[in-house]
Every structure is written in structure tokens, then in C-alpha cells.
Design brief:
- The structure holds two protein chains of two kinds.
- By secondary structure, chain A is α+β, with helices and mostly antiparallel strands.
- Chain A folds into two domains: 68 residues, VC0802-like (2-Layer Sandwich); 71 residues, VC0802-like, CATH 3.30.2130.10.
- In chain A, 33% of the residues lie in helices and 35% in strands.
- A six-stranded antiparallel β-sheet of chain A has the order 2-3-1-4-6-5.
- Chain B is α/β, with parallel strands linked by helices.
- Chain B is 29% helix and 25% strand.
- Chain B is globular.
- Chain B has an eight-stranded mixed β-sheet, with helices on both faces.
- In chain B, helix 6 links the parallel strand 3 and strand 4.
- Chain B has two domains: 323 residues, Rossmann fold (3-Layer(aba) Sandwich); 94 residues, 2-Layer Sandwich (GMP Synthetase, Chain A, domain 3).
- Classes of the chains: A alpha+beta, B alpha/beta.
Chain lengths: 143, 437
């Protein structure tokens, strides 16, 4: 199952990341996972939150440039070689990963990762066949 | 002064009356050429000028309307061409205020005249045939490269046609061939100085003695700085492609502003608002008539450069009046490291890119000795798909589009909508933070 990632364009200005985080925080929206794609002159903040519809509405109302992206969150054995084994499977099936990053929390003893695939549907089929647990939006909300 | 070098002493020291006689003869000839062009035929006829003989005195020049850069844009590509293309030996071109360039044609005699003016300019600075001349100006459409190249060859100098940029190679070449004279923009020469020593080549390893500095306005302080840092003599140079290029006016050994070669150019200073002629010593817009170019006659061209003409003569004995430094512009043209850039060119390009919103800002400052141009644009929220790579690609696309138009690569900054200040006028979109020393 796909989950929603929110991307926010951040120009290179002091306090801009703080503006996003405080806006979400003040409205009781919790950030579950976060990464920043940075370039020389701007950044793109990528977040997974508990209430994504509300978050994107709020961001846009406050003049942030924000959009949705479909990503997949999976559980990875939290031990040496845990991620490697999953990446091996994906590589063997020619699944291309555009980027990935980790969650702050986890449900079990397994680590939680966000992955953005070139072809999300195909990637999900491959993951399902390998019995890799794909996290649902509900689970994210309940974290 | 003794030992003042001349290329053509007779012309350069001619009495005022003799200069005016040459001007009148050549103006009449030029009117004959101009009447062959679509651009001038109609406007000359309307002014009652139907033949060269209708010009009775130099005062009649004022009956002719001014020519503007916009006129040349409208007459692009050949509305101002006075000869058959078969006679054209070379084409030069400069940026127009919008996408349409300003093109100038030269036939063999025109190149010859221009080259002679440059030889005259070079010799006036005291440079000689045994000098090693490294021409750091850009070759190609830009007149600064080829113009001085031909002039220096005519003087008999050893010419190194290295062209612009590549600082390491410039310094290495200056050492390898023991370059004695360079032609360069003042900002680039200061940049070169700042890089001396980086690869083990110091000032003492060079043989530099003179620099012709031009293509961008600069102050007396900048000249002094160049002279003190590099232990050389630096000479100011003025020209614009519409009037051939460099060699319109050049400083002599006295270094007290630039002799404007009046046998080739008729200079006027006007009030840019009213168009009224001003007196020597009064600051206004320089208007030039080229009287030695057959392929592209140019009558009363408004340079948009603000300057004045010195009323008195020069210690060197030359009688051609001296043009002051360029004190400003009457339009919003920017000069970025010697390259002319109009904000309208930038606006035209970025407004064609759908991912960019309508607000933008042009920012100019100094990074070291060089100018730095930054174009700040706001992104259009609906086209933000969340991918940083797409935004990077957009940025590169904007840089490429702008480079194709203005020939230099600006830095491009992407901003959030509503973050750039909103202005009503075009000129206010330009923030120029370069120090005015």
C-alpha cells in the first residue's frame, strides 16, 4: 500500500524549515519521517505525517509550495545486512529506487524505511511476493 | 611634450577648420550611402535631404533625426545595409534590447578604416611594433576581439589572439611569451592580478608594461589600482559596435581622457530629454555619426552613454577633442564583465518558461574583482511536483536559456512565490550592489 509523502519547496532562507515545523506542530500534526533534498540554493523537505490531507491543506493555505508524492514504507530487519537483503531482492527484480530515508519510530523490532520507486506499483508487487511488510497509512497514523 | 608618438601626425594634429572640412566632405559622402538604405532614405527625404549636396554645412547634420538602437532592431536584418551583400567583408553583432540583435556590416574599406583608427589609438598610448600584445577580449561577434587584433597587426605588434577567459592559461601565456601589452576589461585584469602566485607565476615573472582597458565603464580609482598593483600604465578605451567597436576614442600617453577621432566620427553631446545640443564641458548623452563606413552608415546614433567633451586641447598636441569617462547610461543597460545586458532580454526569456511565476529580480554584485549576475525567480506552485531533481533541471534550463540570449551564464536562484519584492516598474527589478568607487 502506498502512503503519502509531502514535499515542500524551501528557498535558501534562514528559519524556513522552522516555519514549516512550527506550523505543523501548532496544529497537532506529527512528523513521522523526514529528509531534506538539498541543493546549492534551495531544498526540498520530504515528510511523512500522521494527518497528510490536513497537513497539505495547511501548508498551502500558508503559501508554502507543497505537493504529494506516493511512497512505500517497509519494515526492514534491524540487524547487519537487513537492508542489504531487501535491496538485493529489489535489484534482482530490476526495481529502481529513487531515494529512501528512515522513520523516527518503529512498531516492532524492525526498522522502518520510506522508499520512493520509479514504478511504485511494480515495486509493491515485488515486495508482496517476498513477504516484506509494507506499512499502511492507518499504521502510520497510529504510530 | 616631446617624443609624442603618432600614427598619422597630420590628421591627428590638424587645425579645427581642417577637421571640420574633412567631416563635411565625409558627411556628404555618408549621406549618399545612407540614401541607399531603407532605414535612412525616408527619414532623410522627410528632412528635405535628397542628395549629398543638400548638406551645406556641418550644422545641417542637426536636420537629421536621431538613430536609436530600436531603429536598428526594426530594420533587422538588412534595412540599414547600403551595399550589396557581395561587397560585405564582415558582420559583427551585439545584443539588442530584446531578442533581436543589432547587426553591423563592414565592406573592405570599412574594415580598413576601422583598423587604421585602432592602429592610431594603439600608437597614441606609446605601444610599438616590438610589443607582444595579448588580446584578452572575446573574439567572434563581439567587436573588442577582432578590432584590436587587426589594429595591433597593422602596427606590427606580435599578436596573441588568446581571447577571453581561462585565467590560468592567460597568466601562463603572459609568462611564456613575455607579453608586454594586454587588451582587457578592467575587472578581468584585476581578477588576473588576484590569481597571480597561485601557480607559482608572480608579477616579477611577467614583462607587462601597458594595458588597454575598456568595454566597461570604470573610475579613475580603478585605473590607479590597476597601475599600482601591476606596475603598468593603463589606458581607457571607448567604442560600441554600432560605431564599429573599439577605436572611437582612446587615451594617449597623457592619460587624461580619450581622444575621439573626429575625422571619422562627428560627436555631439545632447540633453537626453530634449535632444538639444549641449556645449563642450556639459554632461549629456553622446551622439555619434560615423562618416567612414559605407556598408552601414550611422547618422546621429544615440549611444545612451552619458559623458562630456573637454573644451581645451591636450598636452600631446592632438587636436581631436577628448571624451570624458562614461558617467552613466540613459537606459537600464547593465554591463556585466564587459558584456552589455538589457533587463528586457532576461525578462523575455524567463517569462517564456511555464514553471516560473511572473515576479523576478535581477541582482548584480561583485565576487572578487568580477561582476556576478544572479537572476532570482519565483517558482509556479502548480508545477512543483515534489522532486528536487526536476527543480535542478529547471534551474539549468533557465541558465541555458539566458546564456543563449545574453551570452553570459547567470546564477539562477529559485524562490518561493511571494518572497521576492513586488515592483511596478521594470527598472526597479534590477538591484545593482556593485560598489561605485
Amino acid at each position: 500500500m502506498k502512503i503519502t509523502q509531502i514535499s515542500v519547496f524551501l528557498e535558501n532562507r534562514k528559519g524556513r524549515l522552522y516555519d514549516v515545523c512550527s506550523l505543523l506542530g501548532n496544529h497537532g500534526i506529527n512528523i513521522r519521517a523526514l529528509t531534506i533534498a538539498e541543493t546549492e540554493s534551495f531544498g526540498v523537505l520530504r515528510i511523512v505525517v500522521d494527518k497528510s490531507d490536513q497537513a497539505i491543506k495547511l501548508l498551502r493555505e500558508n503559501q508554502f509550495v507543497a505537493n504529494f508524492t506516493d511512497v512505500v514504507a517497509i519494515e526492514v530487519p534491524d540487524k547487519p545486512g537487513g537492508l542489504a537483503s531487501i535491496l538485493k531482492t529489489l535489484a534482482e527484480h530490476d526495481v529502481n529506487i529513487e531515494y529512501m530515508y528512515g522513520f523516527v519510530e518503529k512498531f516492532s523490532d524492525k526498522a522502518l524505511l520510506v522508499m520512493r520507486f520509479e514504478d511504485t506499483d511494480f515495486a509493491q508487487q515485488v515486495l508482496a511476493k517476498q513477504n516484506i511488510h509494507v506499512v499502511t497509512s492507518k499504521e502510520i497514523e497510529g504510530l | 611634450m616631446t617624443d609624442v608618438p603618432f600614427w598619422n601626425r597630420e590628421v591627428e594634429t590638424a587645425e579645427r577648420s581642417r577637421i571640420e572640412q574633412i567631416q563635411l566632405e565625409r558627411l556628404r559622402q555618408t549621406i549618399g550611402w545612407a540614401l541607399k538604405t531603407a532605414l535612412y532614405r525616408k527619414r532623410l527625404n522627410q528632412a528635405g535631404i535628397n542628395a549629398p549636396d543638400d548638406i551645406k554645412s556641418l550644422g545641417d547634420l542637426r536636420r537629421i533625426p536621431f538613430t536609436t538602437k530600436d531603429d536598428l532592431r526594426v530594420s533587422f536584418p538588412k534595412g540599414h545595409l547600403a551595399v550589396d551583400m557581395g561587397e560585405v567583408l564582415r558582420i559583427h553583432s551585439s545584443s539588442g534590447t530584446t531578442g533581436i540583435p543589432t547587426v553591423i556590416y563592414y565592406c573592405r574599406d570599412d574594415v580598413d578604416h576601422w583598423t587604421d583608427l585602432l592602429a592610431r589609438s594603439i600608437v597614441a598610448t606609446g605601444a610599438v611594433a616590438t610589443d607582444i600584445f595579448q588580446n584578452m577580449m572575446t573574439y567572434g561577434f563581439f567587436t573588442g576581439g577582432l578590432g584590436l587584433h587587426y589594429g595591433a597587426e597593422r602596427v606590427g605588434m606580435t599578436v596573441i589572439p588568446i581571447g577571453g577567459g581561462n585565467t590560468k592559461r592567460q597568466i601562463q601565456t603572459m609568462k611564456d611569451f613575455q607579453t608586454t601589452v594586454v587588451h582587457v576589461t578592467p575587472s578581468y585584469l584585476l581578477h588576473i592580478h588576484s590569481k597571480l602566485g597561485e601557480d607559482g607565476i608572480e608579477l616579477k615573472d611577467l614583462a607587462l608594461r601597458k594595458a588597454f582597458i575598456g568595454a566597461e565603464p570604470h573610475s579613475e580609482n580603478t585605473r590607479r589600482k590597476i597601475q599600482d598593483l601591476l606596475h603598468i600604465d593603463a589606458y581607457n578605451s571607448y567604442g560600441l559596435s554600432e560605431l564599429n567597436g573599439p577605436g572611437v576614442a582612446f587615451e594617449c600617453v597623457c592619460k587624461k581622457d580619450m581622444h575621439l577621432w573626429e575625422d571619422a566620427y562627428i560627436a555631439e553631446i545632447i540633453d537626453p530629454q530634449t535632444g538639444e545640443n549641449l556645449k563642450d564641458g556639459q554632461e549629456g548623452e553622446l551622439v555619434l555619426t560615423n562618416v567612414v563606413r559605407r556598408a552601414t552608415p550611422m547618422l546621429r546614433y544615440r549611444t545612451r552613454d552619458l559623458a562630456f567633451l573637454h573644451p581645451q586641447g591636450c598636452d600631446c598636441g592632438r587636436t581631436h577633442r577628448r571624451l570624458s569617462r562614461i558617467l552613466g547610461r540613459t537606459d537600464d543597460m547593465l554591463i556585466i564583465n564587459g558584456v552589455n545586458v538589457f533587463p528586457s532580454q532576461i525578462e523575455e526569456k524567463i517569462m517564456k518558461i511555464p514553471e516560473v511565476a511572473t515576479n523576478y529580480q535581477i541582482h548584480v554584485d561583485k565576487k572578487g574583482a568580477l561582476d556576478r549576475l544572479t537572476v532570482k525567480v519565483e517558482i509556479y506552485p502548480k508545477l512543483f511536483l515534489g522532486e528536487a531533481t526536476k527543480l535542478e533541471a529547471l534551474k539549468h534550463k533557465i541558465v541555458e536559456e539566458l546564456r543563449a540570449s545574453i551570452t553570459i551564464s547567470p546564477a539562477v536562484e529559485l524562490h518561493e512565490p511571494g518572497s521576492l519584492p513586488v515592483y511596478e516598474g521594470k527598472a526597479k527589478r534590477v538591484v545593482d550592489e556593485r560598489p561605485k568607487d
